[in-house]
Design brief:
The complex is a heterodimer. By secondary structure, chain A is of the alpha/beta class. Chain A has five helices and five strands; from the N terminus they run βαβαβαβαβα. Chain A has helices at 11-23, 35-44, 61-71, 86-95, 107-117, and strands at 3-7, 27-32, 49-53, 76-81, 99-102. In chain A, α4 (86-95) links the parallel β4 and β5. The longest helix of chain A has 13 residues, at 11-23. Chain A is globular, with a radius of gyration of 13 Å. Chain B is built from six helices and five strands. Chain B has a five-stranded mixed sheet with strand order 1-2-3-5-4, with helices on one face. In chain B, β2 (144-150) and β3 (154-161) form a beta hairpin. Classes of the chains: A alpha/beta, B alpha+beta. The A-B interface holds A 10, 12-13, 16-17, 19-20, 23, 55, 57-58, 82-83, 103-107 and B 23, 27-32, 34-36, 38-39, 42-43, 46, 61, 172-174.
């Protein structure tokens, strides 16, 4: 079971990504609209995979990813972006993102991400930061 | 910045706004629709009722995206304000806002407002266009009023809406429309004064001197 947190500032996108993740075999344990909410969620719930948007108001996806990698290094991160240029690619690499996907994503792509996340993730409820 | 630099700056900010509007609007809808279509074949197998609901949602959202794209095309189109007259150009603009956003807009004109130089008319027109888009799209106004008047030495245009309002001293990151309006007017020697507060609508007063 890959416990997945969806992070996107658009409700519609969160809904669609949740449906795709479920169809791809993941278990969506939560969906939040901002990076800050995601960090609060991670501090209180065990999560294996975070699927996050790149372009979000407040905290962009790469900044969120860097914070997740620093505090919960076992959590896998897939970042999705409408624009996928060299700049975003470099930011994703620097932040330690595991998968950078161009939007729209497919069920097959998310299936691969979920397979790659199996056996990783935070194990304890309330996953304490390292 | 000199006048030429400010004009370039305004154009760049405008491009940024169009990029943001495309990203946040039609591109989101189209990519979400693409993702919905991708999962539809599997969804039909596991939950036919949900699949049917998704098809209805996709249709609804594509209609919305078409409307948003149409609005962007209108915004991008050049318009001969000097040939039409500022008052008639603004009436045409309000007609589109009423049709596309279903928001009633009243226009009241007093005095001979067709006295400004062509570049000043254009800057005022684009600033009012920005104000109307903000009111209808972002502030979710239920009514908008435009008062266009010519006095002894200037043309004044007041745009008032009953939308959700905002704090003019705080501009959220990525929101350039307000600054762009002010800059447009300053380039032609005018000004834009914004009065607004959360929950109490917005009133923007544009003034442009004759010289």
């Amino acid at each position: 079971m890959v416990r997945t947190l969806i992070v996107d500032d658009t409700q519609e996108t969160r809904t669609v990504l949740s449906q795709i993740t479920t169809l791809a075999g993941g278990v969506v344990v939560g969906d939040v609209a901002t990076g800050m909410e995601a960090l609060v969620w991670l501090a209180n719930h065990p999560v294996d995979l975070v699927i996050t948007d790149f372009q979000m108001p407040g905290m962009p996806g790469d900044v969120l990813a860097a914070q997740i990698r620093a505090q919960w290094p076992d959590v896998r991160i897939a970042m999705i972006s409408v624009l996928a240029d060299a700049d975003i690619d470099a930011k994703a690499k620097a932040a330690g993102v595991h998968w950078l996907l161009s939007k729209p994503v497919t069920v097959d792509q998310i299936e691969r991400v979920i397979r790659g996340s199996t056996g990783h993730g935070s194990r304890l409820s309330g996953a304490a930061p390292r | 910045m000199n006048r030429s630099q400010r004009t370039v700056h305004i154009l760049e900010e405008e491009r940024r706004r169009f990029a943001r509007d495309l990203h946040d609007g039609p591109v989101q809808v189209l990519s979400n629709t693409s993702m919905r279509l991708n999962m539809l074949s599997q969804l039909i197998q596991v939950d036919p009722a949900l699949a049917e609901a998704e098809i209805r949602r996709m249709h609804h959202r594509l209609v919305q995206a078409t409307s948003e794209l149409r609005q962007l095309i209108y915004d991008l189109q050049p318009i001969a304000v000097d040939a039409m007259g500022l008052d008639e150009a603004l009436k045409g603009l309000t007609h589109r806002v009423q049709r596309d956003w279903a928001v009633p807009v009243t226009v009241h004109v007093s005095g001979d407002v067709r006295v400004l130089p062509a570049d000043a008319e254009m800057m005022l027109y684009r600033a009012v266009q920005e104000a109307l888009t903000n009111a209808a799209k972002h502030a979710e106004a239920r009514a908008i009023a435009i008062e266009l008047m010519a006095t002894e030495d200037q043309v004044t245009c007041i745009v008032t809406d009953d939308g959700k309002g905002f704090d003019p001293t705080h501009r959220p990151p990525g929101h350039y429309g307000l600054g762009n309006m002010v800059e447009r007017l300053e380039v032609v020697g005018g000004r834009a004064d914004v009065a607004s507060s959360p929950g109490h609508g917005t009133r923007i007063t544009f003034t442009v001197p004759y010289v």
